[in-house]
Amino acid sequence: MMLLGLVLHSAASYVVFPLGPAWPYKDPNTSTLFDIMVFVIHLFRMPVFFVAAGFFAALLMERDGPRAFFLNRVKRVLIPLALFWPVLISAIGIAFLYAARRAGTTLDLPPDAFERRPGLGHLWFLWDLMIFYVAVVAAAPLASRIPARWRDRIESTFASIATTLGGALVLAIVTTITLLPMEGPALETSDALLPPIRILVAYGVFFAFGWLLYWRRDLLVPFGARWKTTMAIGSLGAVAYLVLTVGQVITDRVVFHVVGCALAGLTIWMLIFGIVGWFVSRLDRPRPLGRYLSDASYWMYLVHLPFTVAVPGLLAPLGMPAALKFAITLAVTTAVTLVTYHYLVRSTAIGVLLNGRRYPRSLPAREPSRATVAV
Predict the structure, then answer these.
(1) pTM across the whole model
(2) Is the pLDDT of residue 120 over 50?
(3) DSSP assignment, residue 363?
């Protein structure tokens, strides 16, 4: 999901529909293909990520206990956020100004944009994760006092929800309710230090699902067995949602918002079930290249954004098709972030900070290993 962020942001400069302050630069060459790409990836990427984050947070909590868990999260999440944010937010701002100058345009920003305090940018999710980590550590003493029969009932209810299409509909309804307070019928993000409660609640549902899934990780087998069905439903839902939101087929704003939130809720959960099931079914054994890219993905995501802005700026005066510019942007961004990871991060102190240990500059050995945390 982190690596998909490179794809998403490489495409953002080439969309037809303006993204506003979220992405204030737009290349002279655009294509509707990238509107669809950005739309679809945004629909499922962070929900799937927060499910995985909740799953591995529960693993760490069980393995290390609340205190060691929290210290681990401070080292691996909060400290990288504090160290990288000042450098990256400045580099991103410079990159946007450079791209706009090269394209001979102005940035799509509100008049007071440069007077506001800078937000967390693309690192917003690290701060939201820390909020969730604090919450689960604070709740740990209370959770340990839950009677066994209640825990059994919670686990059995969760199992029935996580293993049936009817249960997926329940989850879709929950997410629909969390989407209704959003400004539009879609998941919002916030790069503020005090994110709106509606955003924390919406992403908290996915984190909590992942947390519970760890405690019933035997349910991953049914995920893998039915991933084609849920992926197909999710794909059809994405098409219907795209037609609804882009085509504006419903003119009544209230009805449009409610129907859009319902379609988004259903589509998100079907895609979560489908994507998690695909990984369980197809990536169920150690693969050296896959593990290497998993290790690298944290660094690649942290530092990629300035390149996904500066490279389009470099290409802006050239009369290339948007698809070719996108391909060059993604290739350069991937190459630079991967090479810098290999030589500057993987076997260095930065690698210890991000990955928890120094890895040799080689592909991992092809041998079974216990699950580890990449984020």
Answers:
(1) 0.92
(2) yes
(3) P
